[in-house]
Amino acid sequence: MTPQAIGVTAIFALVALVFLRVPVAVALLGVGLAGYGAIEGWRVALITLGTTPFNLAQAYSLSVVPLFLLMGVVAARTSMAQELFAAANALFAGRRGGLAMATVGACAGFGAICGSSLATASTMTRVSIPEMRRYGYADDVASGVVASGGTLGILIPPSIIQVIYAIIAQESVPALFAAALFPG
Fold first, then answer.
1. Longest C-alpha distance within the chain, in Å?
2. What is the C-alpha to C-alpha distance for residues 28 and 14, in angstroms, rounded to an integer?
3. What's this model's pTM, rounded to 2 decimal places?
């Protein structure tokens, strides 16, 4: 069987497993392992499965990931997010859509602190959506602003995803942060 045929078969198998309500992670692991084993051989597939996660996790640069998570928890527990939102709201007060702009500004600030889009979006949801509701914003607009602002967490350096990408791509972490500074 050619690798292309194995790939097409694997896609159909993955879709079938998802429709059979197999958890997505288990379906991906099973189909990926079966496909890799069919192409490279089962011995190579099992050795790779046993060594690759350890080799990726032992990178020294990944030691920053728990520190980012700790900083996100500290920022959430110390009302830093509320203070960032209040500061951004004061900056944009009096403008049409100022509260939405303040939400995006607070998302950018919180994203720079914790480095995670998920943490940024979940924290700013708790902080800004009640304020936006109070001032008459529709729920879909408020959640859309938080969702789009939450994505800034991985764009603005320092970011967990940028560190992981730099490790996988074997690039310099500071160079990647410098490259992401302007777009973020």
1. 66
2. 7
3. 0.58
